[in-house]
Amino acid sequence: YRRNYICELQNCRTTEEMKKWFLNKTSEICNNMESAREKEAVSIIEKAKSYIRDNYKKDISLDEVSREVDISPYYFSKLFKQGTGENFIEYLTRTRMRQACVCLQNPDYSIKQICAMVGYSDPNYFSRIFKKYEGVNPSEYRERLENGTGRG
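User: That's the sequence. What structure does it adopt?
Assistant: Structure tokens below.
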């Protein structure tokens, strides 16, 4: 598409037409660069979300995920918040809490087992975070499921 540039410029009859052509091309280039940047950001965020979904059971950090997507932790943090509306820890915690709710449906798992299955080493901390997100502690949540009264 750039091959036409010389012809297009040669067809400009006045300095004003040439100026207008340059401004239009500059604007077009800027728009294309912005579009490419946005696509790259979406790709980075999707890759990070996928990594979090695959690794939430482990003790993962923002630094680890930023290395995985090959950008600085600061830029990753900013990009992730812009793209998801949540910071890294909020997204990781919400992912873990959703999985904990699924695990609590299975009475074969103890709360302590579920705690470890979703990436927490301290059952008390897990219960506190779970209550913050669900409004009830894990035992109460499971009880409500068993009684058919739904979520917390």
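The chain has a mean pLDDT of 88.
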